[in-house]
Amino acid sequence: MKKILLILALTLSVSAVNAWNNIPDEAIMLVASKNLTKEGKELVTKYLGDSYADDVCYIAGLEKTKKSPFSKEVHNLHFDKNLKPAKVDGDDALAAIEKALEVVRARKSHTDAEVTKALRIVIDLMCDIHIISNVRIEGVAHSQSDFSFQWYDGDAGKRKTLSNIKWSKMWVGYPQWHNGFSPQLWCEDLEYSLGSKREEFAKGSLNDWIAQIGDNASKFYARINPEYVMTRRERNELEDVNCEMMARAAYRLAALFNELAK
Amino acid sequence: MKKLSILAFALVAILSAQSAKAWAGFGHACIGYVAEQHLTPEAKKKCHYYLRHTLPYYASWMDSWRFAEKFRDVNVPHSVMATNDGKGINFSGGKPAGRAMGHLVNALAELGDGKYKNLPDSVVRQRIINMIHYLPDMHCPVHVKFKKPFNRPYTQGVTKKGKTIDVHAFWDGSPGIGRKGWEMEVYAKNVDNISRKQAKAWQSGSLEDWGRDIAKSTIRRYDLLPDGTEITNMSKAEMAAVTSLADEMAMMAAYRLAHVLNTIFADGNIPVKSK
Fold first, then answer.
1. Nearest CA to B55 among B139, B111, B135?
2. B213 partner at 20 to 30 Å CA-CA among A84, A126, A217, B165?
């Protein structure tokens, strides 16, 4: 019985993860694929083919079979007190992305399988770094690990109850509010809602994007902590932030592939 | 040992409750998706201009916001009251929660006949978002409140493995019965096989006619899931009849939602009363 309890407890704790699931990640990759240059498309097609279902959530897949070369920290982005990327002893998403990009840039001296693996790592981690709860900031204690806070399940009437929610679960859980959405439909929706901002989101380099992500996350950490009580309205409104981060991930991924293909 | 068993059961219950809740959202999203497939190019363009999202994205918006601060009073028309004879829909009766038809009448008066062009974009947007939810809600079997002698409480004695279930939640989730993991496109491919003749029949007439269709169809729920039903004892045919009613009402809602939006954005209107 204790074993069953342990398995169930692990199942619950695993659900508080640091990644959107494969549907939003595939949608992000689909949006990216629609915004590739001819050369970018050729690069992606050569190493990933035309279907991306097996390419997204690559590291998460390795983690399930305990074959990941990384620790769980690889999904997170670490910043120092000045919101500059921090060098950490363990794994870090930015460091892993840069290492994978080196492989893709020097693809002529690598096997196709190595390049494919590197591209999959880039896709997975480019999605993950756009999740607000995956940002760790030095000096901000509650950003160092997941935390719970309270929110009003309803702000009025019979549902005026306070419930606990995990910081990570709130952010990664937003896409699941739209049950039945396929990656294709998410892709269509993201293009409708935020396609007009594709140039703004993809402007600059990887370093500029990282700076924007750190700056953005720091504002949320300044306001929301384990003592915070969130209203239903605020939680609903934050879904727009999550959608925007998904779109940013998609258009930046496209820009990255286009740059790599040059 | 007993305590551990209870704890294990509670954990399983938490996990299963999360998935059960999501099915209701699935039905709404499917209706929004099917409706979108039947929009005219002009209506689709206008909907995307105002919404900046697809129709299914906003399918459950009203459920997400109905309990939020300052939104409760304006976002509760999720059902309709049947008329006293049980053969139609009351346009203004019941608590605010039962006035979906009244909201549809008001929205058409505001938006129809080209009037949407004179309204701020934010107002048109909000009216469409609400309509995407409450028009389908009006067609959900358990969202039609019948008066005596037709009604039976929706928390009637229906059980699953001996435990009384919430019949309301059961019907809300009925489009998802036996369809775990389905995406909207799969649902549409399997269920949206409506003939042109049928679609035209559903879309024609006035809101009063639509109300009569809704009452006539949804009252069947009492016969399909009568008091004392044990869900696990239902035959495949009996369960198929439940799903069939759910699908029929979902398609009726989807085709009418598309028709309402197509009409509004063609500067037309839907008559409220029959001639």
1. B135
2. B165
pLDDT digits (tens, 9 = 90+) for A52-97: 998 999 999 999 999 999 999 999 999 999 999 998 889 999 999 9
Q: Which of B7, B30, B70 sits opposite A5 (nearest CB)?
A: B7
Q: What is the pLDDT of residue B218?
A: 94
Q: How many domains does chain B have?
A: 1
CATH of the domain at B70: 1.10.575.10
A1 and B8: CB-CB below 8 Å?
yes
Q: For A155-176, what is each residue's pLDDT tens digit?
A: 655 567 889 999 999 999 999 9
Judge: B68–A154 Cβ closer than 8 Å, yes or no. Answer: yes
Of residues B48, B72, B182, nearest to A180 (C-beta): B182
CA dihedral sign of residues B168, B82, B251, B257:
negative
Cα–Cα distance list, B44 to A220, B50, B57 (Å): 36, 10, 14
User: Is there a contact between A141 and A100 (Cβ–Cβ < 8 Å)?
Assistant: no
- The domain A2-260 is classified under which CATH number: 1.20.950.20, 3.90.1170.50, 3.20.20.70, 1.10.575.10? 1.10.575.10
* Residue A13 contacts B, CB cutoff 8 Å: no
